[in-house]
Amino acid sequence: MILCQHKLSRSNRDKLQQFVAITGASDKNALQALKASDWQLEAAFDMFYSQPQPRSNDPYSDMILAEGISVLCSDLQVEPQDIVTLVLSWHMNAATACEFSKEEFFGGLQALGVDSIGKLQEKLSFMRSELKDEQKFHEIYNFAFGWAKEKGQKSLALDTAIGMWQLLFAEREWPLVNHWCDFLQNRHNKAISKDTWAQLLEFARTVDPALSNYDAEGAWPYLIDEFVEYLYDKSVVEK
Amino acid sequence: MSNQKKRNFQIEAFKHRVVVDPKYADKTWQILERAIHQIYNQDASGLSFEELYRNAYNMVLHKFGDKLYTGFIATMTAHLKEKSKLIEAAQGGSFLEELNKKWNEQNKALEMIRDILMYMDRTYIESTKKPHVHPMGLSLWRDNVVHSPKIHTRLLNTLLDLVHKERTGEVIDRGLVRNVTKMFMDLGESVYQDDFEKPFLDASSEFYKVESQEFIESCDCGDYLKRAEKRLTEEIDRVGHYLDAKSEDKITSVVEKEMIANHMQRLVHMENSGLVTMLLNDKYEDLGRMYNLFRRVTNGLATVRDVMTSHLREMGKQLVTDPEKSKDPVEFVQRLLDERDKYDKIISTAFGNDKTFQNASNSSFEYFINLNARSPEFISLFVDDKLRKGLKGIADADVEVVLDKVMMLFRYLQEKDVFEKYYKQHLAKRLLSGKTVSDDAEKSLIVKLKTECGYQFTSKLEGMFTDMKTSEDTMRGFYGSHPELSEGPTLIVQVLTTGSWPTQPAVPCNLPAEVSVLCEKFRSYYLGTHTGRRLSWQTNMGTADIKAIFGKGQKHELNVSTFQMCVLMLFNNSDRLSYKEIEQATEIPAPDLKRCLQSLACVKGKNVIKKEPMSKDIGEEDLFCVNDKFTSKFYKVKIGTVVAQKETEPEKQETRQRVEEDRKPQIEAAIVRIMKSRKILDHNNIIAEVTKQLQPRFLANPTEIKKRIESLIERDFLERDNTDRKLYRYLA
Fold first, then answer.
1. Measured between beta carbons, which residues in chain B are less than 8 angstroms from residue A229?
2. Model pTM?
3. Shortest Cα distance from B681 to chain A (angstroms)?
4. Residue B122 belongs to some domain of the structure
């Protein structure tokens, strides 16, 4: 056995480490699974999970939780708060941040056309580039709302929202983003609704930062109207 | 008998031509020519019509129609030229007379000549399509006399001169002028227009231009209008007497333009005499004259109406925003009613009830009444005052008049829901204190409100009346089943259904023992017959009548509020009480308690309690005792005040807040209703539709509507369209 281990190629050893970290299986079981699936990570997972394992009643046993994600990130050599994790979650259609279900995880890998962590890592720059695509950014942005909010809550906590906005608008410049965040902290102090979240992107996309084409009758959410007033008040923009 | 040949008879034509005497035509013409001369020389008596006719007839028959026609023209022309010279020679006034005389002669002559030449008229002229004799004669007169250079201009000037003289006050020979204008008309409408009417209108225009300028510098508005009216009447009269009827509209247009249209603005805005002055001073006659004159010109009435509207709005605005005037609500509303009456009278007396003016007046009232946010409250207070005492002793019909006027003001309100809230509060106080002058009047007003606003507006108000009635029955039942309670204090309970009455938070308060026992008995009695209901005593709304004996034996019956009763009863067991003790014993909240003590101790004539120190305000260290020296010339002394008063600032804020809160569900209901039927609608249209739907109750704020839409989106009643963010979709 040990002999075999020494003979493992670097990529296979990586795969082994990944498998163990993610499934929590023993080295022995991991190796077995991987060998049996011909070192295809996905197939190995499949097999591993389909076997009757001594399982707890923990509904999270089919999930990758915060720890697992942090391992995943370090393997990918990205910070957990790197926006690329959002893109990854989007590909996985993850329901909520800091957890991946089995379906989500595999679905995501499949969508990206990868079957190993190594290949996933290679896809990182592609995923970053997706943020520059107008249409995809739009989808990722709107996805982020549901993903970032607390499970069971309808609205997004203000602090989280501000954090997300700063992250997102670092990728796609919006000159008013800081004013927006200041305004929210000083004047609003409440959670952000889904409609407001979505409409903000429209606002950032379509209204020019000098507000020359802002239409007061433009069906903008009230919060955005208030923001415009705030900008006039603070003389950030001339009326 | 010998054989005879039959011979056919044949009529043969003349074998030789009958040669008409070439001189025949000339000879015949000479006869006729001479006859024409004689006719013109007034010497026709010796002529034989039959002979002349035959001569003319023969000429035409022998194909000399042409000669006859040209001869006629030549002869007549020559005569007319002569006549013309005679007319030209006439001096001064006789010029027109000569012309007239010669014209009459011409007409007679022409008639005779036409008769003589009748056959030519009907045959030769028909076939050659030349002008008939009569029209020809007129044309010849026109060309040779009227248009003769020496007559043409002189004639016109003479006529215009006469008109001018008449306008400046002289008397002229109208008949003469009439004949001349009639002559023009006979010569053809275009002759009348070109040779007389048009220059006449131009001259008139000049005349009135000058005159109006003179007047406007020297007269005030009322005077000027009188003069303008007079001139107008004169011109119409002039036309009737010596111009053609068709000139009437044209000359009146000239007067209207010069005297009115050109000076419209200046007249209306004239200082100290213009429209505004007339309105302020109820100058019905002047206003009526202005209306009648201005309606004749384009934009005349619009000008008057606009000035009236802006004056009304300005005055109204000052009226409602003047802090002095809004001190007393009843006076405030009375002023509004007075203004309404004033303008009603002006519009009906002077402006012929013109609907556009009524509308302008209504929109102005609506504008400024709503400038003061307290108008709904004040109108309710006005009604309250009337129903409490103002209508006492007034006949039913007059009561209706007052209520109808109030309804008129009510209709102007944009925030009818605010009025409803106040009205409910005030009505509650009236009902509970039994202080209404006339039940019929109350009910009548409710019916009017129902007619205006629908059942929902008044259902709660009606509920209040029902509760009062039901309570009476309940009390009877209570005392009926508890005969032992007829000794001891009498309790009268009004049971109010929570939804119908203005909401008040229940205020804690410890009732005196005698009272609370009774109350408990009532409670059990009531809940015995109405299981499943909950009763809570509204101690801040009750009253009590207490018999009191003061130090010197003075007996009085005090009518007080429930709180005041609780305080006073304490003094049955203690001579002196501190503020804190009173507070503890009664558990009445501090602001209410302080107000209560103030009304018992600090009001002159009602101070049944003495306070140390004798300051105006209640301090927490104060001490209280009964005022043994209390006197009043009345046995019954009323101390409690449950009268509706103008709200204090904080109360006003609170009411306003409640109104705003109540509006939110109404707005949402409207949005949902509209979206349910339309399924998809864009933002601006939703705002418009919602505003329209809610307009009978209040003016919906677009920002508030927007917030409600967002709330509905949040709750998944609506969603935005994927492609057009301004569109909303109803989610079933």
1. none
2. 0.73
3. 12
4. yes
